[in-house]
Amino acid sequence: MTLSTLIALIVTATLISCEVYRPCIQKADVVFLLDASTSIGEQNWTRTTEIAADITKYVDVRPVSVLFATVMFNRIPTKQFDLKDHMDHYSLVKALLAIAYPGIPGTKTYLALRDITNKNMFGAEAGGRDDAPDNVIIITDGNSDFSLTQTEATRLKQGGINIITVGIGSKQSQEELNEIASAPEKVFNADSIDLPWEIIDSLNMKACEQREVSREMDEIMPIY
Q1: 68 - beta bridge partners?
Q2: Helix, strand, coil tally for the chain in percent (to 5)
Q3: What is residue 218's DSSP assignment?
Q4: Residue 1: C-alpha distances to residues 14, 141, 199, 201, 224 (Å)
């Protein structure tokens, strides 16, 4: 057997048994609810927007993977942008860090939760995708109208929305943070140094699929 024939046989065997992996893409639609009440204060507000920005750094922000929307709330909720508005990481972080602290009293968390439904923030018109799981990340001290907030959170959870809470500030209501979240392991503290990773692990994402594709060659050209 000549050397060229041996090489041809090796290449042929390699190509026939070759497994090709498609890119692994995870999808999720995420709405931030950011508490901007006076109980948060300006310093913690800066920390709030930084936390939101930090979370986005560890996921793939683009139309085929993870998208974010944001609502700021105090006595009223104010939508900052929709899922469709920022489809790259740079513009998203810039928008988050540019949200000014209003210094308005009132922590109407239930109105912010209700706004998600009223404004159809996970709907197609806002950029939501049918094949992307819906998630809400609330960064708050948790001091709101407890029963109303609990009711609205339950309604969203019953609709299949995953809710994650992040407590911030020195006067957190742990009971409320626990009740809003979808599960005890989805309640976090802003002081955790691993916070971004912890939250990302708690996001409901479309399963990451890697399909094996066998590459078969009908005809192998000989090597001379």
Answers
A1: 30
A2: 40, 20, 40
A3: S
A4: 19, 77, 60, 55, 13
3-state secondary structure of 162: strand
Structure-token pair, residue 8:
């041809």
pLDDT tens-digit series, residues 30-43: 999 999 999 888 99
Looking at the DSSP bridge assignments, the partners of residue 181 are none
Residue 119, pLDDT score:
96
C-alpha 84/C-alpha 50 separation (Å) is 21
CA distances from 179 to 39, 118, 151, 157, 176 (A): 20, 22, 10, 11, 5
pLDDT for the residue numbered 3? 53
Residue at 71: amino acid letter? V
pTM over 0.85? The answer is no
Residue 30, SS3 per DSSP = strand
C-beta separation of 74 from 41 below 8 A = no
Which amino acid, residue 215? R
Stretches where the chain sits below pLDDT 50 are 6-23, 209-224
> Angle 53-120-47 (CA atoms, 0-180°, nearest 5)?
20
The whole-angstrom distance between residue 107's C-alpha and the CA centroid of its chain comes to 23
Interatomic CA distance for residues 35 and 140, integer angstroms: 5
Cβ neighbours of residue 21 under 8 Å, at least 6 residues apart? Answer: 210, 211, 212, 213
